[in-house]
Amino acid sequence: MSAAPRFEARGLARTFRGGAGVHGIDLDVAAGEIHALVGLNGAGKTTLMRLLLGMLRPDAGAVRVCGVDVNRADAATWARVGQLVEHPLAYAELTGRANLEVAARLHGLGRAQLAAAVDRAVEEFDLGRYADVRASRLSLGNRQRVGLAGALLHEPDAIVLDEPTNGLDPAGVIVLRESLLRRAAAGAGILVSSHHLDEVARVADRITVVNDGRIIGTLDPGGFDLERAFFALVHGDDERRRAAA
Question: What are the residue boundaries of the ABC transporter domain, all occurrences included (predicted)?
């Protein structure tokens, strides 16, 4: 029997004052899949991710995480989830290693697992030089590495990353790419948003385009000139909505 989708949304809606938000979205993230979410600023990507993670309550629709209704998800379910949305978890006065230890505890790792998980994360994200440096003294890119390491060190089954390459140098982007591909190969379902279509195409199995809080189409990760195809979808949707108004 196939595994349940790591994330499943049906008819998901949340509208803010002024009309922004998401409006009737259906979305699945399968086990073993990297599903990319792309759209212009304000398209609703972060709102959708926050709804999937139970950070926001929807006005309508339902979300399941690892087969469990998000409203009924317990600590054991959330221990299977890893996320970085908007800002990395990095307490300024703690060192990189201490931040990872906090993340490990928050994800439910016991004392016997914690040290090994932190050591693996430090190695995977090449944080050895910064493990004993306070986060307040780290560059934006290295704080991002700490945040990503903290989100992934417990080997979650369901992963949500909002613009994870923010601040990363080319070496950091490669480290992240390899990390996501390895986890997907092990069965994790990964939802990732990005403005960098070329990088998305290197890792994504599916690319979903969001505009004005709605899914308007998909892109082929192996397709030619993704940027042109993306802007054609968005422009066409904008034109249709203007005509309807």
Answer: 7-237
pLDDT reading at 74 higher than 80: yes
How far apart, in whole angstroms, are the C-alpha atoms of residue 97 and residue 118? 7
Distance CA 26, CA 166 (A): 27
Question: What residue segments make up the domains of the chain, in order of their start?
Answer: 1-80+157-245, 87-155
One-letter amino acid at 36 equals: A
Across the beta sheet with 158-162, what order do the strands follow? 81-84, 158-162, 189-193, 34-38, 206-211, 214-219
The helix (run of H) or strand (run of E) holding residue 239 is helix 226-244
Amino acid identity at 238: D
Distances (CA, A) of 103 to 12, 153, 154, 199: 29, 8, 9, 27
CA 147/CA 143 separation, integer angstroms: 6
pLDDT for 160-173, tens place per residue? 999 999 999 999 99
pLDDT digits (tens, 9 = 90+) for 108-139: 998 889 999 999 999 999 999 999 999 999 99
Has domain 1-80+157-245 been given CATH number 3.40.50.300? yes
Residue 10 one-letter amino acid:
R
Cβ neighbourhood burial of 38 (10 Å; 0-12, 13-18, 19+): buried
pLDDT class for 1, splitting at 50, 70, 90?
very low
